[in-house]
Amino acid sequence: MARLRVLSVASEVFPIVKTGGLADVTGALPHALARESIDVSTLLPGYPAVREVARAATEVLALDELFGGPARVLAANSAGLDLFILDAPHLYDRFGGPYVGPDGNDWPDNAFRFAALGRVGALIGSGAVGSYRPDVIHAHDWQAGMVCAYVHYAPQRGPATILTIHNLAFAGRFAASVMPALGLPSQAYSVEGIEYYGDVSYLKAGLQFADRITTVSPTYALEIMTPESGMGFDGLLRARADRFSGILNGIDADVWDPVHDSFISATYDAAQVAKRSANAAALRRRFALDERPDALLVGIVSRLSWQKGLDLLLDALPVLVGRNLQFAVLGAGDPALEAGFTAAVAAHRGRIGVYIGYDEAVAHLMQAGSDVVLVPSRFEPCGLTQLCALRYGAIPVVSRVGGLADTIIDANEMALAAGVATGIQFAPPTSAALEAAINRAAQLFAQPAVWQRMQRNAMAADVSWDRSGTQYARLYRDALASR
Ligand code: ADP
């Protein structure tokens, strides 16, 4: 099969810059695609975190003017990834997050920071960098959406374009007053272009002009074609339904591997689930929980935001802590939720432990030591936490939405009888349904043979990138062939 060249355009890539699951995907997909004869290079903004990598890079393109200052494209290889770094200090080299400044607000010039990313992606697509010319440009989320518009309006035909929606909640919406600076033809400001309710949306630029659109699970694809979940994009997505599909994410099977995991107390495989008890003991100590090995230990690793539904857990906690249950919560985000969990610890010491923060090592211990990993999201494009849980034999208890619906086999009567259950799903996302789901988990936990069968099923589930890599490869070739 002919090798394909794909330029991935992304605002974050693990292990270089990460704020969420997007980085895990853009960091892992190039490795999975290499097995499909696809060479991926990734275009990434030159934030401070990227400068370390940029030190060993070579300049491949210089621009006198890019949204208010000079810029360069640097080529580098880091962590096994081929990178193009957009070195534009006036846009990216500043103290703060990729999207948000130290004051917690979006950078005021995000419209230009991410238009620049798109414009340079299209330039590279047109062959501006030496002999490099990608067959396909794969844009991730609104931050990269504009590359599809710049390729569309370029004078020559460029590469095929793919947009992947990792989270529709972020539209990349800016005032229409940015239009003149974007350098697009005036007709781009229209319903058929990037206009969005009187503003512009960079996500819409991708949705409108990409040759193919994907999102990260089949169920989320269906959900966002409805007015309830479509955030104003459902009409456009329905109109482009023949170009739109869902491809599940995987997880990095080397990073998340209970057989070789230096963060946990006891490593184990599917035949040794009893060894998880050493991790449970370590987890109880880490979260100052009472030593109660008979209690069902429920773990949470999550951003604390409305999306993730953890307020539902807070509502149900007063009842749940009266049962033989313990909770360990690792997360950060919404101050009200942080305060809610901190107060819950004070009220129910030994029953619930909370660690406000972001910590990879504790996340691994959580997967290896919890009996259940709870993911009660109101919406979830794919979700990675439940995939990690499967691999570690922590039974996922999840709301039946998006990728959670697609990746967990609910322990209903038939699934239990057939011996295929891997977790528990509940709907709708309410505290009553969450409470009932945890009760179901506790009942199954009380039947060791049934529980261990579920653990073995969970650990045998294919959560790797292999299947998805094959699907993306097919999509790229298909998009290219149909041009
Ligand atoms: P999202 O990208 O919406 O936050 P995902 O489930 O797709 O949710 O991915 C979240 C990733 O970030 C997972 O790998 C999860 O383990 C990790 N994560 C989330 N919160 C924390 C935290 N507080 N500490 C460590 N890892 C975290």
Which descriptors would you attach to this protein?
483 residues, alpha/beta, Rossmann fold, 2 domains, 9-stranded mixed beta sheet, 6-stranded parallel beta sheet, 20% strand, elongated, binds adenosine-5'-diphosphate
Describe this structure as you would to a colleague:
The chain is α/β, with parallel strands linked by helices. The protein has two domains: 264 residues, Glycogen Phosphorylase B (Rossmann fold, 3-Layer(aba) Sandwich), CATH 3.40.50.2000; 191 residues, Glycogen Phosphorylase B (Rossmann fold). The chain contains 19 helices and 18 strands. Strands 3-4-5-2-1-6-7-11-12 form a nine-stranded mixed sheet, with helices on both faces. It has a six-stranded parallel sheet with strand order 15-14-13-16-17-18, sandwiched between helices. A three-stranded antiparallel sheet has the order 8-10-9. The mean pLDDT is 96. The site of adenosine-5'-diphosphate has 18 residues, from α1, β13, β14, α13 and α14.
Q: What is shown here, in short?
A:
The protein is α/β, with parallel strands linked by helices and 483 residues long.
